[in-house]
Structures are given as C-alpha cells and as structure tokens.
Amino acid sequence: MSSRPPASPSRRRFLAGGLALGCSAAASPLVTPIALASAPWDNRLVVVILRGAMDGLDAIRPVGDPDYAALGREVEDGPPGDGFWARHPALAPLDPLWAAGEMAAAHAVSTPYRDRRSHFDGQDLLEAGGTDLGPASARSGWLNRLIETVPGTTAEIAYAVGRERMAILDGPAAAARWSPDARLALSPATQQLLELVQHEDPAFRDASREAIAIAAEVAGQEAPEAGEDRRGAHVQLARFAAGRLRAETRIASFSLSGWDTHARQSQGIGVALGRLADVVLTLREGLGPVWEKTAVLCVTEFGRTARLNGSGGSDHGTGGAMLLAGGALRGGRVVADWPGLSEAALYDRRDLMPTRDVRAHAGWVMRGLFGLDAGTVESAVFPGLDLGPDPRWTL
C-alpha cells in the first residue's frame, strides 16, 4: 500500500484551525480534515445505499422460476447467468467482474422492516441496523457501531461521502464527512491562501483541487482544470472515496438515488443500474491493488411488488436483492433461499418473500474482512440479529 507523506506544519495548522476559507464550515468540503488515520486491519468496506428501493427482481432476474414471466416481467436475454438467474442488461459492463468472482448478489433479502413500506422509515431502519426504529434520539448507525468495536481508531477511519446525511455513520464514534456543496465559491484571496498552504504538500493540493472539481461538477459548473475528465457526480463521488480508501481510510459510505420506479420501470432502472455499474468500475479502477482487499455492499431499503403495475412500474414491496462487489469476495454467484413466485409463496400475496436478513449477509462480510466474532456482530453491530449459516462471502 502506498504511503502518504507526513503533513507539513502549514497543513497541520490549516486543518487544526478550521479556517473558514471564505465560506462556512457546513458549506465547504475543504475544511473537512483529509489527513487520514490508520486502522488495526487492512481490508476495506464500502457501503452504497440505493435510495428509493431497487427492484431486485429486475436487477437479478429469476428467469428459471416458472412464475416469473406471468408477473409481466422482462424476460429478454441479459448478461449470462446460470440458467436460473439472469442479470439486467444494464449490468453488462460488470460481466468481467462476475467472471472473475468479484461480483455477486444475495436475493430474497430484506431488513426487519415490514408492511408500512415508507421510504423514510425503511431507510432509517436500514441505516440503523436494528430490528425496529425506536426513538430517533437513541439511534446510531451500524457502521458507527462497527467502528466502536475497534479500539484505537480515529474519525478519519471512516468517511461519509456526499451531500445527503448518511445516518449509517451516525453515533458516538467519530467519523469524517465530506460533501461537495453546490454553494462552494472561492474568492481570489482564498485561492491564494490555498496555494500558500498547499505549496509544500502535493497530496493536500491534489485532494483540494479534486474537492473543488467535484463541487463544481455537482453544481453543473465548469470545473477548473477539469479538462476532458468531467463525468457524472456519482462517478466523482466514487473516485473521491477510492482515493481515501487507497490511503489509510478503511470504511466509506455514500448513496445513489433514482430507484423509485413506479412507472416506466424499464427505462428508470436501466439508468440507475448503469450508474451503479459506473460506480463499481470507478472504485475498482481507483483502488488499484487495494481492490483485492475491498468488499462493496450495495443495499436498499426494501424491494418492490412482484407484479408490475398498470404504468409499467412496480410499487413498494418487501423482499429484494443486494449486490456485492470487490476483490476480497468469493463472488460469481447468486446466494438465495429462494421462496418461489407463485401467489401463495409471495409475502402478503404481492411481494417477494424475504428468507434472509440483509444484515446477516453484511455481518458475514464484516466477520471475514475484520475478524469480528459472531457475538459482536449480533449484539453490538446488529442488535437482535441471528447471523445464521455462513454464505462464505470472503476469501
């Protein structure tokens, strides 16, 4: 793993002092400390929240189930599967990762959330990682509790990336946050100050330039010195996360929206899955050799109805799928205790029946990556969880 040069005195003063740099601390990504901390383990974990409820039956299609086509679902040929499973065509760019065992899925999964099917409550429970929501004042995120289990860590071991609040990292354990803010505007005097501070610290200079570029991209502005490399904000966020993880950060989390496909799902989910493929490939490229030590979990608040509605979309459901990626995985497969899609087998006769807790798959990945014992996962990280049998996700 490459090492970062030691921070210069000017850089330490800059970070410690929290200079306003012409804008508020809440608005500027530049006052978020970017000096990163070491951790007692070398593996990395990335959690991507797919906000809006990804339709797992469309992303990872159980075409071998005799009741699948009767639900009005797409049965066109997608990327190669194993006869029972087929992947949505928008995931085709990830075919080499499936072939290399660096991409996988878990199907018929959900959090303990049931019946109300509210995005807000579903996302809260997904990020809290418990069995029920309870009072908001008592909640913490499961990634924050993971950090609490490891002595001697500091805030920059974990990064919440993006403009949305990442409740998954909320809690008493310190975690760093970085947000490209559209209101970022640096005066000439501020830019001169940055040049002075960065003069003898190329690592800090490059990181702050990247911060400015991402903020400008998100705002739809022309990024300074961006050249021909201006790409979507989702790719820029993944690139930022990869840069931190390539150094000493061990955990990163951010979210992707666009999964609420009530109408014309064939169009909407294709775009969303294409963005997700971009993100995974960007992480793989940006992490370089660190990819072999990395697991990426892509999770969503709940699934969608098994049958498509009259608008060619799907409504809020229960069971769904999670996607996994990374060189640290034993992938190339779909893991599921498949319940079937007959009306009698559906949850409430409308949704895919969940047969495994999504937290169990996340827990087994963390056990393999970080060496956590089962009791810690089931009590401290995911209270009330029964891990169940080991799906052997990690190498």
From TrEMBL:
- Please name the InterPro entries in this protein's record: DUF1501 (IPR010869), TAT_signal (IPR006311)
Tell me which PROSITE patterns the record gives. TAT (PS51318)
**Keywords in alphabetical order:** Signal
Q: Where is the signal peptide?
A: 1-27
> Which Pfam families does this chain map to?
DUF1501 (PF07394)
Question: What is the recorded name of this protein?
Answer: DUF1501 domain-containing protein
